[in-house]
Amino acid sequence: MTKKKTAFPKKQSGPSSHHHTHGQGQCVDLLRQLSAYIDDELPSDICQEIRRHLGACPNCEVFIASLQQTVTLCRHRPVPPLKPADRVAMRRAILNEANVR
Amino acid sequence: MRAPAPKTPPQRPSMQEPDGFDRLYRDHVDLIYRYAHRLCGETESAKDLVQETFLNAYRGLKDFRGEARVSTWLYTIASRACIRMRRKRKGEPEHELSLDEFVPTSEGEFRLQIPMDGLTPEEALQNKELRQALDQAIDKLPNKYRMALVLRDMEGLSAKEVGNIMGLNERAVKSRLHRARLFVRRELSARGITNHDDHKSGGLRS
Question: Does residue B57 contact residue B24 with C-beta atoms inside 8 Å?
Answer without folding.
Answer: yes
